[in-house]
């Protein structure tokens, strides 16, 4: 029975397992999405979430603790500078695991682990929401002036569109007649 057994051993010694988790965490922080086995992703999730929580404190002590865990200074800088501030209003749940099919060679179940706000590089930019659209302000005009102005505008548009439509129809009929004449010549 597995009573109170907290973590998977992943077929490695403690030192090897910790080195694996440290390297996976560094890769996840630098790339924001990695592909690995489901078992490794499930072990990596709490490891990385504790690092993000540590990064939200942003103190010298927190940076030194992160440097003791992560292998590169650039990774720690990205954790404290970019990733942790994005989750400042969130209380946990910084990552998600997307399950994939089995691996071709040995049939191991694969998964993506990524930060919840991850945007795929090829994805389109999100459409602006209704709140973000700027509201066009009309200059305040007296109601009488607005009513008087509309018939003039409509009259101008009708007169302008009338002749243009006729010339367009003439151009279309000329093209059609040329096509008919060329077909008759070839027959």
- Characterize the biggest β-sheet: 3 strands, antiparallel
Main sheet strand line-up: 1-3-2
| Distance between the ends | 91 Å
CATH superfamily of the largest domain: Ribosomal protein L17
Share of helix among residues?
55-70%
The DSSP helix count reads 5
Mean pLDDT: 81
SS-derived structural category: mainly alpha
Poorly predicted segments: none
The Cα radius of gyration reads 32 Å
What attributes does this structure have?
5 helices, 57% helix, three-stranded antiparallel sheet, 2 domains, 187 residues, single chain, 11% strand, 50s Ribosomal Protein L17, Chain: A, mainly alpha
Topology diagram in text:
Elements: H1 14-31, E1 33-37, H2 38-57, H3 60-69, H4 73-86, E2 95-102, E3 109-115, H5 143-186
Antiparallel strand pairs: 1-3, 2-3
Describe the fold and architecture.
The protein has 187 residues and is mainly alpha-helical. The chain has two domains: 14-115, Alpha-Beta Complex (50s Ribosomal Protein L17, Chain: A), CATH 3.90.1030; 147-187. 57% of the residues lie in helices and 11% in strands. It has a three-stranded antiparallel sheet.
Quick overview of this protein structure:
57% of the residues lie in helices and 11% in strands. The chain is mainly alpha-helical.
């Amino acid at each position: 029975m597995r009573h109170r057994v907290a973590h998977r051993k992943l077929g490695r010694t403690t030192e090897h397992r910790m080195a694996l988790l440290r390297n996976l965490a560094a890769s996840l922080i630098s790339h924001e999405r990695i592909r690995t086995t489901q078992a490794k992703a499930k072990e990596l999730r709490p490891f990385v979430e504790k690092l993000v929580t540590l990064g939200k404190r942003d103190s010298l002590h927190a940076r030194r603790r992160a440097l003791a865990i992560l292998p590169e200074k650039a990774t720690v800088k990205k954790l404290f500078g970019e990733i942790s501030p994005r989750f400042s209003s969130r209380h946990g749940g910084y990552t998600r695991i997307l399950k994939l099919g089995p691996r071709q060679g040995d049939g191991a179940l694969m998964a993506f682990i990524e930060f919840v706000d991850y945007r795929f590089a090829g994805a389109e930019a999100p459409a602006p929401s209704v709140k973000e659209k700027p509201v066009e302000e009309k200059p305040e005009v007296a109601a009488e002036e607005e009513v008087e102005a509309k018939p003039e505008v409509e009259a101008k548009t009708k007169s302008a569109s009338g002749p243009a439509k006729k010339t367009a129809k003439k151009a279309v009929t000329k093209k059609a007649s040329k096509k008919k004449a060329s077909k008759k010549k070839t027959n």
